[in-house]
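Hi R.,

Here's the chain you asked about this morning:
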Amino acid sequence: VQGLLEQPTVDAGALDSAGLSPLDDVEAMLKRNIGDAGLEAQLRNVRGMLMEAVIIEQIKRQVKDGVTQEEGQRVRDYCQSLVHGALEEYRPRVIISYATGYRDGLDEKGGGL
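And here is the predicted structure, written out as tokens:
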């Protein structure tokens, strides 16, 4: 999957004929395979790669086209999903913080980079 996502012509967020993205498909597979720890771990790994690829493409576009509130929230949700366990007990070796302001005339309020 990683090698495929690194190809310049691959769109990890592309929708199929049913209007579903690869990420939607992985989420559905995760729900169907509860209890199979090995498969769940592999699917979570694929989900992480897809989320990262989609977000990277969004950020590239948002630099010039701006950020919607929905997109800003999606990035925040992704970052928060990287926390495993209780937030109060999370002690990463490195943390990156950023202001969620906006660029006047470009980003929606609350959606900034």
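One quick note: The chain has a mean pLDDT of 82.

Cheers,
M.
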